[in-house]
UniProtKB/TrEMBL annotation:
It comes from the Bacteria. InterPro entries: Diverse_substrate_MTase (IPR051052), Methyltransf_11 (IPR013216), SAM-dependent_MTases_sf (IPR029063). GO terms for molecular function: S-adenosylmethionine-dependent methyltransferase activity. This is SAM-dependent methyltransferase. GO terms for biological process: methylation. The keyword rRNA-binding does not apply. Belongs to the methyltransferase superfamily. Residues 50-146 form the Methyltransferase type domain. The lineage of its organism: Bacteria, Bacillati, Bacillota, Bacilli, Bacillales.
Amino acid sequence: MEYADERKQAVREQFGKNAEHYVQSQTHAKGDDLKLLVEWLKPQRDWVVLDIATGGGHVARTLSAEVDFVVATDLTRPMLEAAARANQRENATNIMYVEADAEKLPFLDGAFDIVTCRIAAHHFPNPDAFIREVSRVLRVGGSFLFIDNVVPETNEVADFVNTIEKMRDLSHERCLSPREWKKLFEQNQLKATREKENKKKFAFQQWVQRTSESKEQEEEVEQFILQAPDSLRAYLEVQVKDQRVITHQIDEWMVLCQKEGNDRNDK
C-alpha cells in the first residue's frame, strides 16, 4: 500500500507541473482515435459517461457533444483544472470534474453507460484494481473503451520499452501486453468485442523533453536507446542521424468491451 501511495504521488507531481503541456499535446489532442471512439461506442443522447484519468480532457470533450453528461476524473487537481479551462473554451459545459483515484472510484455500482480511459493506465500501480472498478461502476450491457500504450509478449522487448518509459517519465508504472489486459477484462465480466493496434511515431526530442527533469536525464534516455541491441532498436523503428535519435515509435492498443452479466444492477 505504501508503494502504491508513493507511485501515485509521483503521478500527481509529474502531471501537476506538466498539465498545460498535456492539454496542448498534439498526440493527445488530435489523435485519430478520438473520432474512432465515437464510431465504436455509438453513444446515445441520454447516456452518462465516465472518463477516467481524463488528462487534458480530450475524450471528455469529444463525448460531451454526443451524450447527456460526462464525469471526468483525474488523480491530479491541476490537470483537472487545465482540462476544465480548455473544455470551457470549447463550450463543453456538460462535464463535471472529480478528483479521484482510478483504483478506488467514488461512484455507485452501475452508474455509467460508458466508461473510457485513454493513454493513462500505464501510470496505474494496480491495473487489476482499476479494471475491477471499471466493471463495478459500469452498468450491465454498458461499454468500456480502453486505449493505452502496450508491449509485446516477448519479455526482453517489453522490459526494454518499459525501461525507456521509466527513464523518461518517473511516474510511469508499466505498459502491459494486450493479452495481459484481456485476462483482466475476462476476470471482471468485460468482453472484448473490437480491437485495433496502432503504431505511434514520435519526434524523440519533443517526446523526451515533455516529462524530463534535466538535460542529463534526456541524454541518458537517448544513450540507452543508442546502445541497445539492433533487434530492440528495430522494434521501435529508431531513426538515427549523426548519433542522435530522431524518431521512434511505440505500440498503442484500442479495445471496446461490453459488460456481461444479469440485469440486477442495470439502470
